[in-house]
Amino acid sequence: MSSQPQNQTQSQPKRRAGPSRTIKGYLILYNLVSAAAWANVLYQTALYLSKSSSTLTSLTTSAPSWLPPSVAPYWKHATGTYGAVGELTKWVQTGAALEVLHSLLGFVRSPVQTTAAQVASRLYLVWAIADRFASAQSSPYFATMVLSWSITESIRYPFYALGLLGSEPRFLLWLRYTTFYVLYPTGAGSEALVCLATLPFNKPITKWDFWSYARGGLVLFWVPALYVMYMHMVAQRRKIFGPGAKAKTA
Predict the structure, then answer these.
(1) Has residue 250 got a pLDDT over 60?
(2) Are 27 and 107 in contact (CB under 8 A)?
(3) Catalytic pick among 191, 213, 227, 230
(4) Residue 191 known to be catalytic
(5) For the chain, which end, N or C, has fewer CB atoms within 10 Å of the first or last residue's CB respectively?
């Protein structure tokens, strides 16, 4: 799903034809709608988190003892984020399944395997984890996960839409290839912690069922997957902002 704007830059007079006007119009609409949807998720999440903690949340949750007292109320309040934006996030993220179809049909140049893996990992989180497990829903890391996703997508989709319209504002280009330094680790780290919240740590590991082992095993892939995606974005950033790239991005 990461953009690859510098794929064909050197000694290749033959440039790949872009999408037809109809497909281009559809992709612009898709990206604009997705941008608005994720901006709404971001707004609703920020709105919820900015409100004072409810009495119910304060009574039904307890913060870890290692948290500073000044942070504990925010931690408790974050445990109610799923109730505020969980359903909205699930359906907005489900809409991204269309990106796999876009890649399969050749509407975009993103590799099918990479796109499918990224979309599937998020669908797994919203449908197989957060939708099914109360422990995932009450995890404060659901809040940081959704914040990381929604900020990322509120930048990515406008970036794609404007690119299709022939405009790439410098500030948006910078945001697209800089914010990942923070948002990728916070997003992937939160995803892993939300998954870990579903594991039955109150039982000996030898008594876990198959699906608990499977969920635990998948968490082990988060670190290498994050590393691969992180380094891919670092490489992309070097192409765009590194030495000799000014002429291409001006």
Answers:
(1) no
(2) yes
(3) 191
(4) yes
(5) C
